[in-house]
């Protein structure tokens, strides 16, 4: 998929679908809304990885990010979703082309209206205190804390309220996984919520360890409440037994909670 380049002056966000008042938002109006409704959150942002099988890359990308933007539900409320039919939000990015041999007019993802109405789900234009760069999805992108990064649509240009899930390739062919325990039936589910996970930061991969005591530390995280993390253990290949690590919860994260161990 090609990376689009669009100026802030030319950028527009269309909000339409099953709404009472469809409208288009430009950059100046977005900033005005930000003065009244803007908020800053810190969240864990994790890339799901390549959905191609076998994967074209096997590199983990995860980190804490500070975002500034407007809660998605504020923009939706201006349009007035029809309560008797509205169920999903389709989010379109400006990137287009082909992926995995499949043509795509737009990169399009969806999320249930119940998730879209969460205070943590933002339409953002600042990242870590700076304006969002083109490489990071600027001028404006969607951010869905607690869900894998593939759902945080870059170069956001349209939000459409719909009754059903989106039918594009990035919700049907790509970014779906087998439901655990349903392998025989082949039951699939969308790649949405981040799973409980962890990473060792020190020692670094391939680092040469000297004799003596070695400090092992890293991070673990999950979607939602960090209480889902009951404990952290590590195993050394030479010892072949699990050892419990000391850990503490990190507060202030939205959508995904984490712990240092």
Our Rg estimate from Cα atoms comes to 20 Å
How many extended strands?
Answer: 20
Amount of beta strand: 35-45%
Q: Quickly name the level 1 CATH class of the largest domain.
A: Alpha Beta
Helix and strand succession?
Answer: EEHEEHEEEEHEEEEHEEEEEEEE
Strand order of the largest sheet: 2-1-12-5-8
Give the overall shape, derived from the CA principal axes: globular
Search tags:
mainly beta; 20 strands; 5-stranded antiparallel beta sheet; 261 residues; single chain
Explain this structure.
The two termini are 38 Å apart. The protein has two domains: 12-190, Sulfite Oxidase, Chain A, domain 2 (Alpha-Beta Complex), CATH 3.90.420; 197-260, no CATH class. Helices cover 10% and strands 37% of the residues. By secondary structure, it is mostly beta strands. Strand 9 (122-127) and strand 10 (130-131) form a beta hairpin.
Topology:
Blueprint: E1 12-17, E2 23-26, H1 27-37, E3 39-46, E4 62-71, H2 72-79, E5 88-93, E6 97-99, E7 102-104, E8 107-112, H3 113-116, E9 122-127, E10 130-131, E11 141-143, E12 156-162, H4 169-172, E13 176-178, E14 188-190, E15 197-202, E16 217-223, E17 233-235, E18 242-244, E19 248-250, E20 256-260
Task: Summarize the model shown.
By secondary structure, this protein is mainly beta. Helices cover 10% and strands 37% of the residues.
């Amino acid at each position: 998929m090609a990376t689009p380049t669009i100026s802030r002056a030319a950028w527009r966000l269309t909000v339409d679908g099953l709404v009472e008042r469809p409208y288009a938002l430009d950059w100046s109006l977005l900033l005005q809304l930000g003065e009244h409704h803007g908020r800053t959150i810190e969240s864990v942002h994790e890339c799901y990885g390549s959905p191609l099988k076998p994967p074209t890359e096997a590199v983990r990308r995860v980190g804490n990010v500070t975002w500034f933007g407007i809660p998605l539900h504020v923009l939706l409320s201006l349009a007035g979703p029809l309560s008797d039919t509205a169920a999903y939000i389709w989010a379109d990015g400006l990137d287009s082309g082909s992926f995995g041999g499949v043509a795509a007019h737009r990169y399009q993802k969806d999320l249930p209206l119940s998730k879209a109405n969460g205070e943590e789900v933002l339409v953002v234009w600042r990242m870590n205190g700076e304006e969002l760069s083109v490489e990071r999805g600027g001028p404006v992108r969607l951010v869905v804390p607690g869900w894998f990064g593939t759902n945080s649509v870059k170069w956001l240009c349209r939000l459409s309220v719909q009754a059903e899930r989106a039918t594009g390739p990035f919700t049907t062919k790509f970014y779906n996984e087998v439901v655990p325990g349903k392998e025989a039936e082949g039951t699939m589910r969308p790649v949405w919520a981040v799973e409980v996970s962890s990473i060792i930061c020190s020692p670094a991969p391939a680092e040469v360890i000297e004799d003596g005591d070695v400090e092992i530390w890293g991070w673990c995280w999950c979607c939602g409440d960090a209480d889902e993390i009951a404990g952290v253990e590590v195993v050394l290949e030479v010892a072949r037994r699990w050892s419990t690590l000391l850990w503490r919860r990190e507060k202030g994260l939205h959508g995904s909670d984490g712990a240092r161990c």
